[in-house]
Amino acid sequence: MSHILDIKTGGKLLNEAEKVLIMIHGRGGSAQDILSLSQHLNVEDYALLAPQATNGSWYPLSFIAPTEQNEPWLSSAIETVGKTVKSALDAGIKAENIYFFGFSQGACLTLEFLARNAQRFGGAVAIIGGVIGEKINREKYKGDFAQTPIFLGTSNPDFHVPIERVYATANILKEMNADVTEKVYANFGHSINQEEIELANSIIFK
């Protein structure tokens, strides 16, 4: 089984925008849900692209399950993000003007895609997520972010995403020349808080 490409849109028209924000929803969420979050971000001039996961989930198990157990959904999900990026590039948007926002399962997918395809992007926000796999396979991650700003926000503890994986992810991104900002909130729960939105706006969407 694989995901059917279904990209919901918002904001400016792709052919009229200079910047694009790709928004990746979490498990059980929807593209429309995450698009609605954009009203709190400084992205008035951006085209918004939000792929919809088939059946509402990007892959069936935890992101720290053995990778093969999340296949073929996981590979298809990564491909879906790649196709979403390609749609922006094909419209004439430069990679350095493509931004990302992912939450939970969508944050994991965003980070996995970025680490596998590092280059200078506009920036990325990943709330409660980390790179995917039971163990981290560093060999999968290649490229140079050329100081792309990436903001990682999370709660400690979080039922789905261990804090150790967030730290390990931050270290990998830094090794790959990303400009990483991490913020950990004690016992905040599995959601997005106001300060994370404000930090996203000041660090990424400035």
From TrEMBL:
Residues 16-202 form the Phospholipase/carboxylesterase/thioesterase domain. Keywords: Hydrolase. GO terms for molecular function: hydrolase activity. It comes from the Bacteria. Pfam families: Abhydrolase_2. PANTHER family: LYSOPHOSPHOLIPASE-LIKE PROTEIN 1 (PTHR10655:SF17), LYSOPHOSPHOLIPASE-RELATED (PTHR10655). Belongs to the AB hydrolase superfamily. AB hydrolase 2 family. This is Dienelactone hydrolase family protein. It comes from Chryseobacterium formosus.
